[in-house]
Amino acid sequence: MDTPSAPLPNPEALKGDGLGCHSGRDAMLEAAAQAGKGGTLDQYAADYPKGPHDQPQSMCPAFGSLRVGLRMRRTQTILSGSACCVYGLTFTSHFYGARRSVGYVPFNSETLVTGKLFEDIRDAVHAQADPSKLDAIVVINLCVPTASGVPLQLLPKSIDGVRVIGIDVPGFGVPTHAEAKDVLAGAMLRYARSEVEAGPVAAPRTGRAQLPTVTLLGEVFPADPVGIGMMLEPMGLAAGPVVPTREWRELYQALDGVAVAALHPFYTASVREFEAAGRPVVGSAPVGHDGTEAWLQAIGTAAGVAQSKIDAAKNRMLPAIRGALAATPIKGRITLSGYEGSELLVARLLIESGADVRYVGSACPRTPWSDADRQWLEARGVHVQFRASLEQDLAAMHEFKPDLAIGTTPVVQAAKQRSTPALYFTNLISARPLMGPAGAGSLAAVINAAIGNKARFDAMKDFFGDTGEGYKSGVWQDVPQEHPEFREHTRRQVIKLIKRRKAEEMI
Ligand code: SF4
Questions:
Q1: Which site in 174, 271, 310, 414 is 20 to 30 Å from 106, CA atoms measured?
Q2: How wide is the angle at C-alpha 220 spanned by C-alphas 442 and 236, nearest 5°?
Q3: Terminal-to-terminal C-alpha distance of the chain
Q4: Average pLDDT over every residue of 3-19
Q5: Is the separation of the CB atoms in 218 and 264 below 8 Å?
Q6: What HEC string does 310-357 produce?
Q7: 255 near 192, Cβ under 8 Å?
Q8: 8-state DSSP, 298
Q9: CA 62 to ligand 1: nearest atom
Q10: Residue 404: which H helix or E strand, with range?
Q11: What is the mean predicted confidence (pLDDT) over 148-177?
Q12: Which among 391, 440, 446, 388 is positioned nearest to 422, based on CA atoms?
């Protein structure tokens, strides 16, 4: 299948040095809008409302889309972007155990501004589209190709049966890597929905489920879907696929669910596809006693299950959850922040375990699907901050002086510097079961052990004092001496340089 010739990209995107996540988003947005990406960016602005910062404060957002693509069977993911961005993304994806190679179509100023980059991407897609190996090829435009308008929408929709999905995931339009997962998941669901509407599609690998299924939206801990399946069973329901899916044909199954559980609340584009397919979407998740009770009720109602069966599910699950919570109490004051989207759920579980949670910050935005969690937390005096910035997370830690700070890398680092025990949200908290009875007791051991380490932090602080702080940090033969006169010299040089530039501009 051939495609129309590409419009010339916008060379404005290359003006100045390194327009990317380290420069302001306004220049990039303007260049992208001029290059014909205005519609895409308007949709992103509606789906992913911005926070206080004009650039991501965590990893490159495109990592979310890349990861979703790399985890799918028979899917090739190709990046189009600056080499430094691709290096970082490839490194990170392999650090997190990517199962396959990342494709890359390199560019330079010339191929970008002449439109040759688009031709190169199209050639790469054609070269890769082997239906014996692939169901889908995903092409991801990073910041500079998006800003310059590389028109992935003009790629063929499929080549020899291999679907081609082109998406723009710029750091100046998608605020977090969590939401970037939604960009790709939503694009795939839209494609799969059009296939379902056009005629019969492939059945699930393991055959169609005997019971009506509930689609699970959000990358949860692998044991959680199993636990959710056990909770649904008394209602005559089964756990359906998890979206983002691991295989193309699971998308059909996901769209076929009797209801969708938005376990992670930031999948706005995906929810739009499910709603277009006529599927009811339920927010929150079965965490702790109260969360599980409300969730079972909401799911049962959405799926049209008789109240007696919903009650049967509650009667089977809730006593076990209550027992697990009581058996594994958590004592201590905690502040919590992260960018995974599950922060409010974890906070609920901590509070039901007995913890004194004062602050929950999420880099994700407020959506209807986290509203029940927000209300539950606020009713217990917790400050819930959506689109939380690092500065807000740190301020909360300083204000509430927690026994334990759960957070992102810079929050944990700041906490440890002040001898406050701290745990990484992504690696240590969100990588555990949270749902139902299994989730109820899963956090206590790690949290209590961390809180119990306070004395060790104090001992270390006493021993090391202020060694290695500020200009003395690093490994040295001798303790470095500060030279304020060097700084002063550099400052004077910089002032001179600025004055000379100004004078030159006036000539
Ligand atoms: S693609 Fe990612 S790393 Fe590169 S400039 Fe954009 S946000 Fe930054």
A1: 174
A2: 95
A3: 56
A4: 49
A5: yes
A6: HHHHHHHHHHHHHHHHHHCCCCCEEEEEECCCCHHHHHHHHHHCCCEE
A7: yes
A8: H
A9: 2
A10: strand 404-407
A11: 94
A12: 446
**466 vs 388 pLDDT, higher one:** 388
CA of 487 relative to ligand 1 center, distance in Å: 32
User: Is the pLDDT at 141 greater than 80, yes or no?
Assistant: yes
Q: Separation of 342 CA from ligand 1 center, angstroms?
A: 24
Cα–Cα distance for residue pair 477/77, rounded to 1 Å: 47
pLDDT of 3 over the 90 cut? no
pLDDT in tens, 402-419: 999 999 999 999 999 889
Q: Is residue 10 predicted with pLDDT exceeding 70?
A: no
- In whole angstroms, how far apart are CA 379 and each of 78, 187, 231, 372, 383? 46, 37, 27, 11, 10
The tens digit of pLDDT for each residue in 392-406 reads: 999 999 999 999 999
Beta-carbon-side half-sphere exposure of residue 22 (alpha carbons within 13 Å) = 5
Q: Whose CA is nearest to atom 4 of ligand 1?
A: 85
Has residue 4 got a pLDDT over 50? no
Strand, coil or helix: 365: coil
274 in Cβ contact with 189 (< 8 Å): yes
Q: Output the six-digit token pair for 68.
A: 């979703």
Between 57 and 226, name the one with better pLDDT. 226
pTM of the model: 0.88
DSSP class of residue 209?
-
C-alpha 83 – ligand 1 centre gap (Å)? 10
Helix-, strand-, coil-residue percentages of the chain, each rounded to 5? 50, 15, 35
Q: What's the CA-to-centroid distance between 172 and ligand 1, angstroms?
A: 8
Contact 394, 325 (CB under 8 A): no
Q: Are 382 and 347 in contact (CB under 8 A)?
A: yes
Distance 59 CA to ligand 1 centre (A): 9
Whole-angstrom distance, CA of residue 173 vs CA of residue 32: 10
Calculate ∠ Cα 42-426-56, nearest 5°. 30
Q: Does 380 have pLDDT greater than 70?
A: yes
Q: How confident is the model at residue 14 (pLDDT cuts 50, 70, 90)?
A: low
Q: Which amino acids bring their CB within 6 angstroms of ligand 1?
A: 20-21, 56, 60-62, 81-82, 85, 88, 142-143, 170-171
Provide the pLDDT for residue 100. 85
**Nearest Cα residue to atom 5 of ligand 1:** 20
Question: Does 7 score more than 60 pLDDT?
Answer: no
